[in-house]
Amino acid sequence: MDRALRKLIERNCTSTQAPTAVWPMCGRRAWDRVLDWEFRVKELHMKALVTATLFSGLLCAQPPQPVQVTPGTPAVKAPPQATPATPPAPAAIAPTTIVMEANGKKYTAAEVDHLIALLPPQYQQPARSQPQMLTTLLVYQKLAEDAEKAGRDKESPLKEQLEFSRLQLLANSELTLQGNSYIVSPADQAKYYKDHPEKFQEAKVRVIYIAFNPTPGKAVPGDKQLLGEAEAKVKIVDLRSQIVAGADFGKLARENSDDATSAPKDGDFGTIKHSSPYPDAIKNAVFALKPGELSQPIKERNGFYLIRLDAMQTQSYDEVNPDIAKELRQEHFNEWTKALQTQFGVKVENPGYFRPQAPPQLQQVR
Q1: E strand or H helix at 58
Q2: Does domain 195-317 sit in CATH 3.90.1150.10?
Q3: Is the pLDDT score of 365 beyond 90?
Q4: Under 8 Å CB-to-CB from 317, ≥6 apart: which residues?
Q5: Phi, psi of 79 (to 5 degrees)
Q6: In this structure, are residues 146 and 138 in contact, taking their beta carbons and an 8 Å threshold?
Q7: Does an H or E element contain 232, and which?
Q8: CB of 275 closer than 8 Å to CB of 160
Q9: For residues 123 and 10, what is the distance between their CA atoms, to the nearest angstrom?
Q10: What is the mean pLDDT of the chain?
C-alpha cells in the first residue's frame, strides 16, 4: 500500500512550486530562492497526499472513452432523431437548502459551497458535478479535527510546519498583490520608449549556418555526415572570404547552409529583436552591425553562424506599448523585492551558532 501511494504521489507532484500566481514570474523565482528547500519539501508531503487522492478520484470519475472503430469497418447509420429541446435553466437553490448527507449529518448548500471553496481551484468545478470527491475532503476534515482535539497542532514539529505554511500562503498573497497593483501611467510608458530606443530595434538578417559534430567519434541523429569543429570553422571562414570578395550571399546559403528553414530562402532568417530567445552572442553580433555588414563567424554549441544585416528598424510605440507596461511593472517588482531582501539581510554575530551540525546517528536495532 505504501509503495502504491508513493508512486501515485510521484506521478501527481512533480514540482515543489507554490500555486501559480499572476504576478511576474522572474521576480517570483528570485524571491523563491530565499525560501528554505527543506521547509518546502516538508510542506509538499502534506499537500501531495491530498492532491494525489483527489486527482485519483477525479480520474476514476471520468466518462468512458468512445469506442474506436477499425478503419474499413462499414458505417452503420443511426436512425434520425429529433433535436432535443433545450432544457430549462435550473432553479436557484437557497443557501439553507439541504443538498447532501454524510456520516449522518445533513449539509446545506452554503456548507457545501464552503467545503468546495477549500479545494484547490482546479478541483472546485469537478466537485460540483462529482460530489463523491467531497468524501476525501470530509475524511481529512475529520482527521484534522481529531488531531486538534489531541493537541497535536501544538506539538513540534507539526506546530512549526503549520506556522510556516500559513506564513508562506500569506507572503505569496502579498507578493501577488504587489506584482499586480503597480499602475504604469501612459506618460511613464512614453518616456521609457523615448529613453530606450535601442530596446525596440528589430534586425532583418540572413544567415549561413555550418553545423559540426560536438562529440567527435559519436554518431549524431540524421543521415548527414557532419564536419568536425575544425573543418566547420575552415569552411565558414572561407565562405565569409568569398562573400567579402563579392560572392552572392543567397547562392552560398542555398548551397552550403545547414539551416533547413532559411537555406532555401537565400538564408533569410527573418527578424531578430532584443527580446528574441537567441543566445546573447548572436544578438550582440547582430545589433553591432550596420545594414549591409557581415558578422565574423559566431561559434555556438553545434555550429558556426555567419550573419548579414539587411535592414534595421525600430518598432512603433503602438506595437511595443503593452510590452513596455510589463517591463516597467517587472522592474518595479524586482526593485521592491530586492529592497526587502536588503532590508532583512542577515549579519552573523556569532559564527559558532551557524556551524553545520552532524546528522543524528541511526541506532542499530538488535
Answers
A1: helix 37-60
A2: no
A3: no
A4: 190, 193
A5: -60, 145
A6: no
A7: helix 229-244
A8: no
A9: 19
A10: 80
Query: In a 3-state reduction of DSSP, which class is residue 215?
Result: coil
Q: What pLDDT is stored for residue 223 in this prediction?
A: 54
Helix (H) or strand (E) holding 323: helix 317-343
Phi, psi of 57 (to 5 degrees): -65, -35
Asked if residues 244 and 238 have their Cβ atoms less than 8 Å apart, the reply is no
Supply the pLDDT for residue 236.
96
Going by C-alpha positions, the residue among 189, 201, 198 that lies closest to residue 326 is 189
The lowest-confidence range among 59-73, 190-204, 260-274 is 59-73
Please tell me the pTM assigned to this model. Answer: 0.54
| List of long-range contacts for 176-184, beta carbons under 8 Å, 24+ apart | 176/21, 176/22, 176/23, 178/23, 178/333, 178/336, 179/21, 179/22, 179/23, 179/24, 179/27, 179/28, 179/329, 179/333, 180/22, 180/23, 182/329, 182/332, 182/333, 184/324, 184/325, 184/328, 184/329
**Confidence tier at 219 by pLDDT (50, 70, 90):** low
Q: How far apart are CA 198 and CA 287, in angstroms?
A: 9
pLDDT tens digits along 95-148: 999 999 999 999 999 999 999 999 999 999 999 999 999 999 999 999 999 999
Q: Examine the pLDDT at 77 and tell me if it is beyond 60.
A: no
CB neighbour list of residue 121: distance below 8 Å, 6 or more residues apart: 19
Task: Say how many residues make up the chain.
Answer: 366
Q: How confident is the model at residue 317 (pLDDT cuts 50, 70, 90)?
A: very high
Which amino acid is present at 330? Answer: Q
Contact by Cβ (8 Å): 253, 310: no
Give 145's Cβ-side CA count (13 Å radius): 6
- ω into 157 cis (within 30 of 0): yes
232 vs 234: CA distance, rounded Å: 5
3-state secondary structure of 356: coil
Domain ranges of the chain: 2-61+92-181, 195-317
